[in-house]
Write a structure and sequence with these properties.
single chain; 699 residues; alpha+beta; Glutaredoxin; five-stranded mixed sheet; 27 helices; 11% strand
Length: 699
Amino acid sequence: MNHKNPTNRLAESNSPYLLQHAHNPVNWQEWSGEAFASAKELNRLVFLSIGYSTCHWCHVMEHESFEDEEVAALINSAYIAIKVDREQRPDIDQIYMDVCQALTGSGGWPLTIILTPDQKPLFAGTYFPKRQKHGRPGLIEILSALAAEWRLNQQKLKDSAQKIAEHFTENDGFACSFPDESIVTKGAEAIADGYDRRYGGFTDAPKFPMGHMLELLLNHAISKGDGELLNKVEHSLLAMYRGGIFDHLGGGFCRYSTDERWLVPHFEKMLYDNALLLRCYASAYRATGKAVYREVAEAISAYVLRDLENPQGGFYAAEDADSEGHEGRFYVFAYDEFMRLAGEDAGKACAGYFGVTPAGNFEDGLNVLHLSQSLEESAAACGMSADDFAQKLADFRQRLFTYRSQRTRPLLDDKIITSWNGLMLGALALAGRYLGRADLIDSARRAAVFVRKNLESSPGRLLRCWRRGKAEIDGFFEDYSFLAHGLLELFRSDYNPEWLKWSVELQEQAVALFAGRLPGSYYETPHDGEKLLFRPRNVTDGAVPSARSILADNSVLLAGITGDNRHLDIATAIFTDGANLMLRAPTATAAMLNALRRYYQYPLRLLIHAEKLADAEPLVETIEEFYLPDSVVVLSSGESSEQILRPLLTDAELLSVPGPVVQICHKDRCLRPVTSKAELLKTLHQFSSQTPAKPNKSA
């Protein structure tokens, strides 16, 4: 890359991805009305390229084409060139990804689109080499042909673009019947049919972790007492952890595995993946009591707090797959390098444990670390006891981590994205609750405070992202939905009613800004947002859950907390609109199925009243011994003047009982208040098939 003076307008951007292209000889511009006005004035086609900063093939296409003077000369002479960061503008990305998938049957990034000056698509694809090779057309040939056709047959191309655009008119949803509970079971069974008995997981290679899918299966297995399904989920969680997709030195999961064994990852690390997986492993620990899930959850959170947390609060977006011009270079080891660091006494045992061989398992004979043997097998190989080898391994792991830290790190995308921060602060709050880690709840709280201070443009209105002191771009549906979700988890963990109030405000604003004409339908852009080719509507899960599925889940929880059936009305409308889709495509609607599962379970409300909040701690600790994913604890005390809690404490008997008291309410009935731990344990067993296991409170 040319690091001389900026050669295009992207130098004025605040996006790490766009700044990567600021020195290209291509005359890039950001998406704007001015750019399209120039296209109309000059009567040129628009070359639209969409990607993100940690995308490996985006880097490849930049190096092959956008740094190339010949390609740049062609683009600059015949096109208006626009670059879009898909993480900043998911609306533009979704519109043209829908187009690409419809026209070609596939999609991905970099996303390459040729538009008319009025934003209508003519051509769509993903990565293209500079010139034709391996059966893939070259960018030079594509751009030359389309530019010539625009000069000679402009009306024909305009007519073609118009026909394509007409296929993407706004769809406001379809009227359906309300789904019954059997849809959840059918959906879970359909997803489980894809189970890989040998390597775990529920999809073919490339294998994505899909934390929201695993969370549905885990909760369904626990609630129905389905041991076979739980075994499949546990096998998958353990296989992912043991594989190379997990960073065994620094913690955290990579984006996906390129193979069926979870061995060789695509090395980028995304905030949202680690948020969804932190929820899964912390939940699996609380549900099963198995220490390995706690270890993984703590390793994920350690990575996030060490490498992705902004000192002021909030979390950065991602780390790149590449460093020093090579994918995975930061993470892999040569055999001789590894053995030199391991030392003679336990070197071979450590190599066996981490699957390191002279031949390697990655490019150029290098090794991706993974757990190839059990601790006991590796200990036996070097004649040590398991305890002695475990200590050796811990010391060596730290030494290897320190050594690796001296390498050139992959690029950090230091955008703070509102929706992804909602997912992570919610995951940290949940993990803090399940693992007994107050520090994780503190980090979630700092993130919430940061978002409120820096990413609210006005009361009730959110901005999409923040970087280095500058917040920009009006928030999208997922920003409101995911942040409300995170705040609900934070309320469930620290019991501060301010988070509950803010969550309710965001839910109400989401409905006001994004609801479609038919009940249960929602758009991704606000009604007062920028006018694009069409208003995108996302009804399925992708790398993250769909925003309306999370909105439905939030609504069910809020109904359980507050008893306000207006929240239930929102949820039931979404479930009705999505009923046919849940039946036809369960793998694409796992988050909605999980919300529907919660609707039929219905949140368990545990009302605790004490004169002093500290007096309620023994009762709270007893409750937290159980895995009750659909429960909400509401604390009230004589010290509290929070009015939002008062309507919840409607039972005069509760307030009149002396000492700390808890009352359990489910659906339309409340049980008699109890005051002792023994009574509470007996009552909780009615709502949980799980034997409680005390969490380790150590930080």
